């Protein structure tokens, strides 16, 4: 059986990036600053650990009574004029949004950051339907110009230097060379201002959906989500069903924790709650607001009580930032919408276990993700469970027989005794075939030395000492 | 647009079926309940950064947070000083036109600038706001714990005014300081009764981005400067 293409791609790209020293330096610089700010911010909490437990409790309550909270949210926001559309999968969601765009006579769509939108390839669908789609988040805008997917679910362009970004702007926007992040940001701001004023439709995600008041809450730093949701005539918010929280007051703890865990900030620059389109008596705001509630296999995670807490995720990206795998292989190697530990946990549910099980194997099980998660998702155990489930579903032929052979040898002392000299023989001959296809374990020894067998096994030593009269064991006997 | 048939019932049926099997409360198993040892019930906000109980302490904390966030926070003794500070801002930055809305604590000060003003109260065009040198608005409250200003569509002249011009100036009074975000929601409920505004936003410092090499740049899409003039006089 050959490995699926997804796994081959991961191995190829991970292998390449892991040896890229420039990539390593960029990651270290970007994340080093993050660790300092995050720790400084966490230290200000009366008790960060208790805050994590409280936040997990809120999400537990929300996810384990999801039907009730979702219905309340939908009814409350619809009562204030928003149209709510429940989409089973990406196809239903994109078909609906394309229809809204068509019927609304939309030419230009301005998008603020939405990972859920990435998940269902919303921008591509709208472009194919003939609408111009512009990403307004700076990082997303940069990767859109480069026709790349986001590198990190919170920092989409963290893999690029200012030089590369300037080169992209020069090529795609015809802008002059810019040497500083500030100059580059101002170029993007200028381009985007014109788009904001001309766009007919704004698309956003939602970080939370509040059942009690029928509001979505959007967390951002740049102000592009505020502009995308207030200037265009039509606002579409795409909301994963797991985003709902019971009460408005729940945000009092979740908004600061999201910012602290995700970016080491006390709270992000803008946290906006929207409870409908322009209301009677309001002077501005969109004429139409559409809420697209998306399942897209989330109910499959829900149906697995062992991993249901994966739906607690608030997409802060903290688990990526501490993950030794993410830091070494980078975001693109995953080939998924959601990178890092949380991506490795949920992608098998969203897109099929057999094609994505290799991500759960790409882990040292160090537990850094679980330790950092602000809503206490048991991430590294979920990776182990995915491995277990993958093997139960479809054990690898080679592995199955390997273990059978191991069992056979271990249960028969005579066979085991034979293994020691065989091992010494293998040690001698292994270097001859080290990098050739003849080597059955070359995937492992490509980057590692084959362990050298000692000249004498423990059993042999033991026997020898017992037979020798001066051995300490013999004295005691 | 006509109502389109959707998957509401199918999704809810899947959710209800999935929830038949209960999930373990693993967050409590490994770390104990989120409550102090003496058993007294605490709201989750108790674990966040501490906030002084007295107003003066809260003003001091807000000032400190503002400095960290690069918000220009100016404490004024009375409305006359607010007017003087606003004049100084206008002169310093060379404002030629401002955009604003009418609110009790601000209208006189804005008029006394002697500049052309685009008032949003009875409607506006986007280019008029976009090309203004500054926006001057009120707010619902100031949150000491996070250094945030809570604006709503009713307290800040709509949804757009406080984010489009390059400089946002907020005129507030000392009695608008609250402790944390929970207190801010309570203030909204108090100010606006049962039906909360359909737009609420916590503004915390000027617009910012770190998307290029994680280096902080102010004024990504929203205001590059955020100034809060706080009057001790109500």
Strand order of the largest sheet of chain B: 1-12-7-4-2-3
What is the number of strand segments of chain A?
10
**Mean pLDDT metric of chain A:** 93
**Which architecture of the largest domain in chain A does the CATH hierarchy give at level 2?**
3-Layer(aba) Sandwich
At the fold tier of CATH, the topology name of chain B is Rossmann fold
Provide mean pLDDT of chain B, rounded. 93
In order across it, which strands form the biggest sheet of chain A?
A: 1-10-7-4-2-3
Largest sheet of chain A: 6 strands, parallel
The most extensive interface between chains reads: A-B, 116 and 87 residues
Number of domains of chain A: 3
Shape of chain A: elongated
Question: Helix content range of the residues of chain A, please?
Answer: 40-55%
Low-confidence stretches of chain A: none
Derived from helix and strand composition plus strand pairing, the structural class of chain A reads alpha/beta
What does the model show?
The complex is a heterodimer of chains A (477) and B (234). Chain A has 477 residues and is of the alpha/beta class. Chain A has three domains: 4-44 and 306-394, Fumarate Reductase Iron-sulfur Protein, Chain B, domain 2, CATH 1.10.1060; 48-296, NagB/RpiA/CoA transferase-like (Rossmann fold, 3-Layer(aba) Sandwich), CATH 3.40.50.10420; 397-476, no CATH class. Chain A is built from 25 helices and ten strands. Chain A has helices spanning 5-18, 21-42, 48-64, 66-79, 90-103, 115-119, 122-128, 138-145, 162-173, 181-198, 224-230, 251-263, 298-302, 318-322, 324-329, 340-351, 353-356, 358-361, 368-372, 379-393, 397-410, 413-433, 442-445, 458-467, 472-476, and strands at 83-87, 108-111, 132-135, 201-204, 208-210, 215-220, 234-240, 244-245, 270-274, 288-294. In chain A, strands 1-10-7-4-2-3 form a six-stranded parallel beta sheet, sandwiched between helices. Chain A has a four-stranded mixed beta sheet with strand order 8-5-6-9, with helices on both faces. In chain A, helix 16 packs parallel to helix 20 (379-393). Chain A is elongated and about 100 Å long. The N and C termini of chain A lie far apart (55 Å). Chain B is α/β, with parallel strands linked by helices. Chain B has a single domain, classed as Rossmann fold (3-Layer(aba) Sandwich), CATH 3.40.50. Chain B is built from seven helices and twelve strands. Chain B has helices at residues 8-18, 26-31, 55-69, 79-93, 107-111, 126-130, 181-192, and strands at 72-76, 98-100, 117-119, 134-137, 141-143, 148-152, 167-173, 177-178, 199-203, 208-209, 217-218, 225-231. In chain B, strands 1-12-7-4-2-3 form a six-stranded parallel beta sheet. Chain B has a four-stranded mixed beta sheet with strand order 8-5-6-9. In chain B, a hairpin with a 4-residue loop joins strand 5 (141-143) and strand 6. Chain B is globular. The interface between A and B is large, with 116 and 87 residues.
């Amino acid at each position: 059986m050959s490995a699926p293409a997804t796994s081959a791609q991961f191995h190829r790209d991970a292998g390449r990036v892991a040896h890229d020293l420039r990539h390593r330096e960029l990651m270290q610089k970007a994340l080093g600053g993050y660790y300092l700010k995050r720790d400084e911010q966490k230290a200000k909490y009366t008790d960060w650990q208790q805050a994590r437990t409280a936040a997990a409790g809120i999400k537990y309550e929300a996810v384990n009574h999801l039907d009730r909270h979702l219905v309340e949210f939908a009814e409350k926001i619809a009562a204030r004029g928003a149209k709510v559309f429940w989409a089973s999968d990406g196809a239903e969601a994109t078909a609906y949004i394309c229809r809204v765009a068509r019927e609304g006579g939309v030419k230009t769509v301005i998008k603020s950051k939405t990972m859920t939108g990435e998940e269902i390839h919303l921008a591509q669908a709208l472009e194919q339907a003939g609408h111009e789609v512009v990403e307004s988040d700076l990082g997303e805008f940069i990767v859109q110009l480069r026709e790349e997917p986001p590198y990190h679910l919170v920092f989409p362009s963290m893999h690029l230097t200012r030089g590369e970004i300037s080169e992209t702007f020069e090529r795609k926007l015809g802008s002059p060379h810019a040497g500083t992040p500030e100059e580059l940001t101002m170029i993007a701001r200028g381009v985007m201002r014109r788009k904001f004023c001309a766009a007919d439709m704004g698309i956003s995600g939602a970080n939370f959906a509040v059942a009690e008041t029928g509001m979505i809450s959007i967390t951002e730093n740049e102000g592009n989500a505020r502009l995308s949701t207030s200037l265009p005539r039509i606002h579409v918010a795409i909301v994963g069903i797991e985003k709902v929280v019971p009460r408005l007051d729940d945000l009092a703890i979740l908004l600061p924790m999201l910012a602290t865990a995700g970016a080491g900030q006390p709270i992000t620059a803008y946290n906006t709650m929207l409870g409908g389109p322009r209301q009677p008596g309001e002077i501005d705001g969109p004429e139409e607001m559409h809420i697209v509630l998306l399942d897209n296999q989330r109910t499959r995670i829900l149906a697995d009580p062992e991993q249901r807490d994966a739906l607690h995720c608030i997409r802060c990206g903290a688990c990526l930032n501490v993950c030794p795998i993410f830091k070494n292989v980078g975001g693109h190697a995953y080939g998924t919408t959601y990178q890092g530990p949380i991506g490795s946990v949920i992608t098998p549910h969203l897109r099929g276990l057999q094609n994505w099980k290799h991500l759960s194997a790409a882990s040292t099980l160090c537990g850094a993700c679980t330790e950092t998660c602000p809503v206490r998702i048991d991430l590294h155990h979920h990776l182990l469970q995915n491995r277990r489930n993958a093997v139960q579903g479809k054990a690898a032929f080679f592995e199955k027989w390997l273990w059978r052979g191991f069992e056979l040898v271990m249960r028969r002392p005579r066979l085991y005794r034979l293994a020691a000299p065989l091992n010494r023989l293998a040690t001698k001959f292994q270097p001859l075939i080290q990098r050739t296809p003849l080597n059955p374990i070359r995937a492992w020894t490509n980057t590692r030395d084959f362990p050298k067998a000692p000249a004498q096994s423990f059993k042999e030593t033991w026997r020898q000492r017992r037979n020798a009269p001066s051995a300490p064991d013999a004295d005691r006997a | 647009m006509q109502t389109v048939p959707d998957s509401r019932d199918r999704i809810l049926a899947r959710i209800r079926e999935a929830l038949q099997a209960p999930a373990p409360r693993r967050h409590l198993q490994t770390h104990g309940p989120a409550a102090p040892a003496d058993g007294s019930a605490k709201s989750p906000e108790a674990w966040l950064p501490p906030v002084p109980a007295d107003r003066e302490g809260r003003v001091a904390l807000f000032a400190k947070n503002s400095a960290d966030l690069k918000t220009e926070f100016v404490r004024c003794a009375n409305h006359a000083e607010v007017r003087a500070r606003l004049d100084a801002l206008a002169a310093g930055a060379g404002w030629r036109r401002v955009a604003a809305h009418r609110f009790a604590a601000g209208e006189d000060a804005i008029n006394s600038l002697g500049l052309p003003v685009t008032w949003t109260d009875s409607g506006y065009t986007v280019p008029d706001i976009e090309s203004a040198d500054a926006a001057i608005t009120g707010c619902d409250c100031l949150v000491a714990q996070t250094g945030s200003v809570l604006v709503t569509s009713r307290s800040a002249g709509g949804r757009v005014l406080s984010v489009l011009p390059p400089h946002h100036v907020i005129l507030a009074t000392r009695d608008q300081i609250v402790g944390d975000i929970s207190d801010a929601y309570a203030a909204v409920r108090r100010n606006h009764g049962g039906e909360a505004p359909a737009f609420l936003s916590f503004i915390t410092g000027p617009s910012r981005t770190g998307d290029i090499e994680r280096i902080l740049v102010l004024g990504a899409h929203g205001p590059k400067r955020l100034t809060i003039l706080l009057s001790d006089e109500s």
